[in-house]
Design goal:
single chain, 11-stranded mixed sheet, 15 strands, binds adenosine-5'-diphosphate, binds magnesium ion
């Protein structure tokens, strides 16, 4: 005891100094931390103010992470026309909407053609540290919110129009796939307008060259909704899908209207689109639960022989596929029907891809009504397909967006795949 206290006495002055030093150091450190925190807070406030001025009131930390990621991201490659592609898979990101901004949602998708990256907002286990997880996908084309429908059309749908205009009986199909609200209908209706002018311009040129082309253009437009097939150009008349003895699938009773110029064509298409969207204003939007198929047929005016067919398909919202928990029995049945058709669609396009010459691999087109009515698009030796996966930029849609991109990625047999990083 004594020895101890002696020792303590001897050491006291030095001990006090050490303690004081330690306390001072602790305080200095605390002060530095306080200052750093204040600076960070100020920086966040400045950043938030800047974002606000840019019309961007969302989470300042996540926005900051996305912005820094973008600083190091590669610049986009220019699009190149790939008319030789039998299957073209592309992605389109729409701009963020004012409604999303109002809800303080933020843009969490970066498009650097041919890549698209999803920045998912995450929290570390401490519950406060925010970070982003980045998943990149590569497609034939990726279109950003700054590229208009013309640009997208030029690289994805124009090759299809050219293909059917060859007059060899080609079957071309363009699908818009994605979550409700991601821009499927916006994109498809833009494409319909461009097809209208291009087809007649091209046919006119041809007519000029060989005096009197014998091609007539006809349009049919129908919808698949909960197992029903309805004619959008004939008062939603119910149609039957039949497979005849020769294995050809016929939509019995489907009206086909002739169009002699772009304006005729657009009148028909508008009527069909209106017939769909009157339903969309009802409490339960049916347009998000139906597939709309607009077909443009080129026929010989003399024999009626099919010289080419372009199907523009506005698919049901892909989120319905996973919505199987609904309390409403009808909704559940519809959802599982949609799920079935979207899965069948993927398998049919994959089969088309794995076939050097179509018709060899098994094409499971009978697995759903959607793939059944499009049978010739998957089994014809002359088939070409484009899939446009539309995505919403908002962070609250990240999970749906990832599902859409994974689906689109798996449609092709020979894919590049997904790269993740945090
Ligand atoms: P979906 O058919 O997939 O449910 P919509 O095509 O109806 O989605 O688009 C949802 C909303 O976003 C609409 O108001 C539409 O005008 C708008 N929108 C979609 N894509 C774009 C785009 N590329 N540029 C501008 N607005 C868009
Ligand atoms: Mg729609």
């Amino acid at each position: 005891n004594r020895r101890l206290s002696v020792n303590n006495d001897q050491n006291r002055p030095q001990g006090i100094d050490k303690t004081r030093q330690a306390v001072e150091q602790l305080e200095a450190e605390r002060e530095a931390r306080r200052r750093a925190m204040q600076n960070r807070k100020k920086a966040r406030e400045v950043a938030a103010q800047k974002n606000l001025e840019k019309g961007n009131p969302g989470d300042v930390d996540f926005i900051g992470h996305v912005e820094s990621w973008r600083l190091t991201s590669p610049s986009p490659s220019p699009h190149s026309l790939s008319s030789a592609l039998k299957i073209c898979i592309c992605v389109r990101k729409r701009p963020i909407s004012s409604k999303e901004i109002k809800k303080k949602d933020h843009d969490s998708i970066t498009v650097t053609n041919p890549l698209v990256t999803v920045h998912s907002a995450k929290l570390k286990v401490d519950g406060i540290t925010k970070y982003i997880e980045n998943n990149s996908f590569k497609f034939d084309h990726s279109f950003s919110e700054f590229e208009d429908t013309h640009e997208l059309y030029k690289y994805t749908t124009w090759p299809l129009v050219e293909f059917i205009l060859e007059g060899k009986g080609g079957r071309a199909t363009a699908f818009a796939y994605g979550q409700t609200g991601s821009g499927k209908t916006y994109t498809m209706s833009g494409i319909q307008k461009m097809v209208a002018t291009d087809i007649f311009t091209k046919l006119g040129e041809e007519e000029g060259r060989c005096k009197g082309s014998d091609t007539v253009v006809t349009v049919s437009f129908f919808e698949l909704y909960g197992g029903r097939c309805q004619d959008l150009l004939n008062e939603r008349c119910r149609l039957k899908i039949l497979e005849d003895g020769k294995g050809e699938v016929v939509v019995q009773g489907l009206e086909e209207y002739q169009a002699s110029n772009p304006s005729d064509f657009l009148t028909l298409v508008d009527a069909g689109n209106r017939n769909r969207t009157t339903h969309a204003t009802e409490a339960n939007d049916t347009s998000s639960r139906s597939h709309a198929i607009c077909q443009i047929l080129l026929r010989s005016s003399e024999t009626g022989r099919l010289k080419g067919k372009l199907s523009l398909v506005d698919l049901a919202g892909s989120e319905r596929g996973s919505d199987t928990k609904s309390h409403n029995r009808q909704r559940r049945t519809e959802s599982s029907e949609i799920n079935k058709s979207l899965l069948a669609l993927k398998e049919c396009i994959r089969a088309l891809d794995s076939n050097g010459t179509a018709g060899k691999a098994h094409v499971p087109y009978r697995a759903s009504k959607l793939t059944l009515v499009l049978k010739d698009c998957f089994t014809s030796a002359l088939a070409k397909t484009t899939m446009i996966a539309t995505v919403s930029p908002s962070s609250s849609s990240c999970d749906h967006t990832l599902n859409t991109l994974r689906y689109a990625d798996r449609v092709k047999e020979k894919k590049v795949g997904e790269i993740s990083s945090a």
